């Protein structure tokens, strides 16, 4: 069917579950950049003058973990080597200084230290990082609304004093990956180190230390998860009362270990939307409000400021190995794109030599800038903001999707130019988001994942293991449904 109204209605009726869209274009569309093609200072100067606001989100990536979750496809390496942590922190601080001019040209709004498990670093590493930020942007604590770090429950339990020190340094939010409160589900996901008791103890420590915002998550679709076990996790987490809760549909992408080995059977069926409904009902009954399609927050305390601002068009400078930067000109990565200890060592060397440059990315046209905002920011979006960057010339392609969204009850029209998601729109936000993807982005995404599927198929054939393709796009899901019908 070519009619957008029918296409969206059909996806909803089938219970299609596209991967969560937290960036556009996705990383799968990035391609190698010619050496010397992009000068970082010139790139960010173009961003400032052409498209974006003079504000900035700062993301610092720390790739180290104690263990690797089977569903994870993020840039992580396994290491607890303190000497390596020292060298990496030095390199990261050198990279911050090298971007001083870019940072100083904007109002710094958020600082997010992600990973990996940044909480594995010692307090002295964080002191060094924060001192370096202050060196290039002295009043950063006055302008920054959110200072966040990712952690695992066991990393907090192992060093509660260090976590308290982070709060003294100005930490305002911690993201603790929980995923499930059912021990068997946690073990099968490769996280046996974080049992129920450890999770409860980590939450107690964080709350007792007075952290303003504790962010946690749950995942729908683990192997062996039932409606009853899902309700148990939701009910228990609501009772533990973190200030922010995210609920994700499990997506095992082809570059994750579970998919490469074919060793994990997980659920990705329309019935998962019933689990979404249950979580939404429980969390709203406990006083949470929905900030996004996956996230609930305690009014006045919870939330994810950096994500909200990035969705709204504020650029993001990503530093550290494997980090991505989002601008109005180019979304890009510097250095390595494939996690390994040798690549981390190369990053450290290049940072010391001040030789890091964009190596892979996606150049953004005015059309893709418009589509980026529509894909990410449909929760509450003034379409008038997009007129200055070319929406008027795309009305023949964009208006039919907006009309289809309204016809399917996914958006409200608020005044002449503002749109907002309805409760149904929050639920099916990713179906709507995929509808705004450009043909070019869809093709690059397909090309990338088909190559990964082919690689996995060859590897499994060599191992004598049956092939299971997980699917990554709405179109691929529909094709799989047709084959099985």
Major beta sheet summary: 9 strands, mixed
Indicate the multimeric state: single chain
Number of helices: 22
CATH class membership of the largest domain? Alpha Beta
Radius of gyration: 22 Å
**Average pLDDT reading:** 87
By CATH, the topology of the largest domain is: pyruvate-formate lyase- activating enzyme
Q: Hey, roughly how much beta strand do the residues contain?
A: 15-25%
Structural class: alpha/beta
Give the spatial strand order of the biggest sheet. 10-11-9-8-7-6-5-2-12
CATH architecture of the largest domain: Alpha-Beta Horseshoe
Shape: globular
Counting structural domains, the number is: 2
Task: Identify the CATH homologous superfamily of the largest domain.
Answer: tm_1862 like domain
Helix content: 40-55%
Q: Kindly state the number of beta strands.
A: 18
> Kindly, what is the distance between the CA atoms of the first and last residues, rounded to a whole number of angstroms?
18 Å
Low-confidence stretches: 254-265, 464-485
Keywords:
single chain; 485 residues; alpha/beta; Arc Repressor Mutant, subunit A; pyruvate-formate lyase- activating enzyme; 9-stranded mixed sheet; 4-stranded antiparallel sheet; 22 helices; disordered C terminus; rSAM; iron-sulfur
